[in-house]
């Protein structure tokens, strides 16, 4: 793991991820990032998918190298770069073998599921994210 990222998860490249060009479809990269966030919330914050209550408000992906079925797995490294009152910004690196296949950034906002309005991040989440960044 590089110093820029405090968390990594490995994901299987599935046949369904491959498009007619023989490589992972560009939209699938967003799914890889999403799964990495789910793993991070479970492993670092101890929060299951039913308790996350965040919405994605920004997604930027820069594609750098193709991923094929022969790669078998990808590693998604991620690091929290900014913690706001109700938002979290995360940088990512999607790796296939020795190649950086993509870099990305997302911002999620914590929301009240009944009202849809933003609300402050739980203090325990902030503490755990900050502690992980400082490791």
TrEMBL record:
Keyword Hydrolase: yes
Protein name as it appears in the record: Acyl-CoA thioester hydrolase
Species: Haloplanus vescus
Matching InterPro entries: 4-hydroxybenzoyl-CoA_TE, HotDog_dom_sf
Key words, A-Z: Hydrolase
Transmembrane among keywords: no
Family of this protein: Belongs to the 4-hydroxybenzoyl-CoA thioesterase family.
Gene Ontology MF term list: fatty acyl-CoA hydrolase activity
